[in-house]
Structure formats: C-alpha cells, structure tokens
Amino acid sequence: MILYIVILLSCGFISYFWRSGSSVSQPWVPDASVRQFAQRPLPTPPPESFIDTYTLPLRTSGRDIVDATGRRFKLASINWYGASDELFLPGGLDVQHRKTIAKTIRRLGFNSVRLPYADELVIRNPPILPHLLTANPDLMGLHAMDVLEACVQALTDEGIAVIVNNHITHATWCCGADPCDAGWANDHLGPLCRVTQTEDEWIQHWETVMARFVDNPRVIGADLRNEVRGVWGTMTWDRWATAAERAGNKLLQLNQNWLIIVGGTESGNDLSGARARPVVLDVDQRLVYSAHVYAWSGWGSRDGRFSKRPYPSFVRAMRQNWAYLVEENVTPVWIGEFGAPQHPGAGDANYWGNLMQFLKAIDADFGYWAINPRKPKDNAREGYSLVEDDWVTPLLDYRMKDMTELMRI
C-alpha cells in the first residue's frame, strides 16, 4: 500500500513539473509594437549618453554613478565575452576588425562594455592562434593579454566605457556545477581543480590585468567576480564581502578612480546581505553592486523561477534581493547580466516583460548578455545575441526595442 502511494505521488509530481515546463516553453507571438519596431531603422543613439561627453573621473552618489560635475552616467552596457572561454580572446576577431565591433556596439546605443576574462588567461597568457585573428592581422603573433588590451583600446577610442570582469578561474563557459569555479579561490579543493589559485593569487591576477589600464580613464571599473555561489550555493555574504574588500582596496591603490563592482551571491542574484553588512572600501564613493537576473533565476525558492512568476511576485523578489539599495538611494546597483533568446517561449517572454517593466520603473543601470552571435567552443549559435553573424547587422526584435527604450529613460 505504501509503495502504491509513493508511486502515485511520484507520478503526480512528474505530471505537475511536465505541465509546468510545457507551459513556459510554449511559443510567444510578438505584439504589433514589436513588429513595427522591426520594420524601421534602428534609432540613432543619443550622443550625450557616451563617456566621451562626460567629465571624468566617475564616482557614486546615492543610487547613481556620476561624473566630476555630478551628472549621472547611466550604465547602458553589453557583454562582449570570449576572453573567459577556451580560446582566450573576445569573440568575433576572425570576422570583423575590433574597431568595427566597437562601432557596432556604439551604433546599437550601448555606452559601456563588460569584458570578461578567466584567471587561466592571466596564468598562461598563451599566444593566440592566427586563424582566430583573420580580421585583425595586426594582432597576429600576440599573446592573450595583448589582444585583450587591444580590444579595450578599440572600445575606449570609440567613446565606450569598459568594465573588466573576472568571470571564471578555468577558461570555459560559465557557469556549471564545477566547484573549482564556484568562487574566487579554490586551493582548498586540492588536486580536484586543473587550475588552482589562492585568494592572494586571485588578487594578483587582478593587479596584472588592471595595471595595463591605469592610464586609460575610460576603463572605469572592475567587476570583481562573476556569480559567486560556493559549492551548491553555500557561499556566505560575509565571506565574499570580506574578499571583495581586500581585492577592491588593492585595485584602488593602483587607481583610486576605478569603480569597484561587487556582485551578489546565489549566482549573482542576492545582495540582501549588504543591508546589514555593506562592503566598505578605503576610498569613498567607489562601490557599485551588481545583480544578475535570468528567467531561471529564483529556482529553489517558494515562488519558483522568474519565468513563471506574476509581476507582483517578481517585484517582491527584486526588492528583497537588490532593488532596496536603489529605491532607498543607498548605492548603485548595475544589472550586469540578463538576457533572453531571439525566439522566446512563453516563460522567457513573461520573465522579460516583468524585468523590463521593473527596470524601466526604477531607471536601472543595466548590462545585456551578450553581443556575441557565436559561442567560442564549437562555434555554437548564441541565442541571446543582438547581432547577426557578421557582427554588424542588428537583430531588430523585442529585445532591441526594449534596450532602446531603457537607454532613453
């Protein structure tokens, strides 16, 4: 009898989750405003939003990032990844010159780029294979750090601010279940990790990278670590905040004008611990927090993933996790990663609509993931991209429509 009840309950749970998953994966049909946007030329971005019209350096003031005159610099960012992956360089350098990619980013309206790197890149600094640089022949023969620096220079020359991001320890796609990449240091795991580093070594890698940009004022900050979570979500806020203070203060000794960006725990979602235990840096007005918000965020919670939530539940989660810092005018919070596929299901569309409504309501700083049309490994299609494979042609869909609206608030 007990076995029979267990089987019935198991079948019920399986049926529930199957129906739930099926509902969020149903195709989504764009509305008339999205279709109209796709038929028009991409709006020209406002020139006054770019860093070349600001008086540097930047600092923080309450919830805002401002320039030396007090004028707000709203981060309207996009991620350009690849230096954190197996090939050790930002994507697309075999397709377009880095200056062309920078121009594409500016033409899309993004005034800043989050540029991830892996610690393994710093440790090995390998030479980049020539076939990965066919559109950038002047970079052939250079090592990974030199190529990264050249891409930063191309962006800042185009009037685009750059935020460097320590994304992962091993050079690979982030973020899986590998405990070796779940935090900034993994030496406690011993021989389990192919690439091992202590906290001190992690900070030293940061110093090595950022030393190249000390004299480039448009490199505005350091995003200290991507999606800190610990093994199976065990990372405490206090432990991470303490490490972030050590790293941030070391970098501020190199350049006291850099913004130090500290992400939340729980894969970047949770900044609730900052209310009772804020990060405190040696230089005032340099701290920016960061949160990541995806459709699958919220798994394991009572209300479930964000793809399934109604707007009131979604807003409660945002306010609990990070938005209180903005709404109470405490500290800037940059939504440094979010994104959705070109062809969303109903769950993706629900998440996206809720997130866009909220980000517009609070006039948030943001960073879309990502511009890349291809992933480095196996050249797989990046469904979240905002451009075609040529790295020039924009995808004028629901995502780009909302990006242009967010930029103009």
* Strand-residue proportion: 5-15%
Order of helices and strands: HHEEEHEHHEHEHEHEHEHEH
The CATH architecture classification is Alpha-Beta Barrel
By CATH reckoning, the class would read Alpha Beta
Low-confidence stretches: 1-22
Q: Please, what is the CATH homologous superfamily?
A: Glycosidases
Number of domains: 1
Protein name: Endoglucanase E1
Organism: Coniella lustricola
Family: Belongs to the glycosyl hydrolase 5 (cellulase A) family.
Pfam family, one: Cellulase
Topology of this structure?
Elements: H1 2-24, H2 32-38, E1 59-61, E2 64-66, E3 76-79, H3 98-108, E4 112-118, H4 119-124, H5 144-157, E5 161-168, H6 199-210, E6 219-223, H7 237-254, E7 259-263, H8 265-268, E8 287-292, H9 311-327, E9 333-337, H10 346-362, E10 365-368, H11 398-407
Parallel strand pairs: 3-4, 3-10, 4-5, 5-6, 6-7, 7-8, 8-9, 9-10
Antiparallel strand pairs: 1-2
Helix pairs in contact: 3-5, 6-7, 9-10
Pfam families: Cellulase
Keywords: Glycosidase, Hydrolase
Domain Glycoside hydrolase family: 95-373
